[in-house]
Amino acid sequence: MTIRRPALYVSKADFIETVIRPFNTRISDRLVPTIRNIYANGDTVIIFFHAEGKGVRDGTA
């Protein structure tokens, strides 16, 4: 099991470029997320979800 450190993305574009685009190149089907919980404190929001797609099964926060 790999333990990941939290990351801070300064914008939606930063998140898409850093996380989404590289991830999408490694999968063959779109992910279908199921939201497990949403946490908010001030202007900080964390969404805990589980996502499945063809050949991919992952949970992330």
Detailed description of the structure:
It is a single chain. This protein is of the alpha+beta class and 61 residues long. It has a domain at 29-61. Helices cover 21% and strands 41% of the residues. The chain has one helix at residues 12-24; strands spanning 32-41, 44-53, 56-60. It has a 3-stranded antiparallel β-sheet, with no helix packed on it. It is globular. The mean pLDDT is 77.
Question: Strands, helices and their partners?
Answer:
Blueprint: H1 12-24, E1 32-41, E2 44-53, E3 56-60
Antiparallel strand pairs: 1-2, 2-3
The number of helical segments is 1
Mean pLDDT: 77
Pairing-aware structural class of the strands and helices?
Answer: alpha+beta
Report the helical percentage.
Answer: 10-25%
Molecular shape: globular
Largest sheet: 3 strands, antiparallel
State the end-to-end CA separation.
Answer: 15 Å
How do the strands of the widest beta sheet line up side by side?
1-2-3
Strand content: 35-45%
Gyration radius, rounded: 13 Å
**How many strands in all?**
3
* SSE sequence, one letter per element: HEEE
Oligomerization category of the chains in this entry: single chain
Low-confidence stretches: none
